[in-house]
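User: Predict the full complex structure for these chains.
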Amino acid sequence: EADIYQTPRYLVIGTGKKITLECSQTMGHDKMYWYQQDPGMELHLIHYSYGVNSTEKGDLSSESTVSRIRTEHFPLTLESARPSHTSQYLCASSESGEDTEAFFGQGTRLTVV
Amino acid sequence: GEDVEQSLFLSVREGDSSVINCTYTDSSSTYLYWYKQEPGAGLQLLTYIFSNMDMKQDQRLTVLLNKKDKHLSLRIADTQTGDSAIYFCAESFSGGYNKLIFGAGTRLAVHP
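Assistant: Here is the predicted structure of the two-chain assembly.
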C-alpha cells in the first residue's frame, strides 16, 4: 500500500481565503507531483519537484504555488481561492529514474464558494 | 501534440469480460499504464506495458498494445462488482520528471 497522504480530504472554503493542501510521503521518493482533476476529466500536471528546493510548473497553468523544503513534504498553496479553483487535487510521488511507478494520494476535493 | 482518449462509460454483467479501450497520439511514449480509481480514493497502478511489447497478461488483466494504430486496451476477465471503478489510461515519456499524460477515464459499472 502506498504511503502517501493528503490532507484535508475535503475542503469547502469561501472566496478570497488562503489555503494550503498538504501532501506527505514516507517512501523517501525524490520526485513529487501535483495533478488537478475536474469531474469526468483527465488529470493535468500542475507542479512537480525533482527533490528538495526544486519545483517546476507542469503542463496546466495554475495560480497555485508549491514548496519542497523537506523530501517528504510537498504542500500546495492558493493565496486567494476562487470558485474556478474548485477541483480535485491529487498528489503523487515516485523514485528517481525514468518511468518509475507513480504512487498517488487519495486526493483533496476542494470547493470554493 | 500529446492526447489520450477513452470512452467515458462501460457497463458489463458480473462474470463477463470487460474491455476498456484507449487511443493516444504521441508515438514517442515509453510506457503505457492503466490506473484504477475507486470512489473517494487516489489512483492505483494496475498494470503497465513497455511500448515495444504488444501484450502483457497479469492474472485477470490482459493489456494489448497496437503501436501502429496507437491503441491500448485493458481486458478484465470474469469481471466482479469490486472491479467497478474509473480506469485511466496514461502514457509516459522518457527524460526528466516522469511526465504522465492521462485520458479522461472510463467508468466501469458491473451489474449482477
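The two ends of chain B are 41 Å apart (CA to CA).
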